[in-house]
């Protein structure tokens, strides 16, 4: 652990049976709460199996992620996390692709202001149904919509079980875009709803959460 903090965290002890694409999506789902992720590198070569790199835009994000998720049970195995060694060929190559960015990164405040606006534009057309759903009285069951096709019970459980009172995830047969999540009470479900509203499970799917109809 004497490696200097940097933007990239190196994770090992990952479950080798999980498919690469599902692994990357699940890692994105649980790590994007700490900040913007530039890329996730997971290779299925013999030497690199069970390992991944998550590259954050900010060092603060990678530091928080390392502290919060150390030993987190991910597909039934506790994650081991450390900062990536800066001389890693893999990351040097990855950073090579980001070398053009410094000019753009300096006026970051402008970019970050723009980003939410763009997101809001996308969301506004959908706000109306969200508003209608919001009128449901608070209760312990959340109704999720706009989920990507590859959503799995495991993926949603990992996302929601970080909140106190989590009980279970229920997927709807033959419908991949919706699901229910049950908590002990409406205060706990409300906290999870507020925290994960609009959470992007994939870059193109912002999850919508409302209280389920009783």
TrEMBL record:
One of its GO terms (cellular component) is small nuclear ribonucleoprotein complex. Its main location: nucleus. PANTHER family: U1 SMALL NUCLEAR RIBONUCLEOPROTEIN A/U2 SMALL NUCLEAR RIBONUCLEOPROTEIN B. One of its GO terms (molecular function) is RNA binding. Belongs to the RRM U1 A/B'' family. This is RRM domain-containing protein. Keywords: mRNA processing, mRNA splicing, Nucleus, Repeat, Ribonucleoprotein, RNA-binding, Spliceosome. It comes from the Eukaryota. It is found in: Nucleus. It holds the Pfam family RRM_1. SUPFAM superfamilies: RNA-binding domain, RBD (SSF54928).
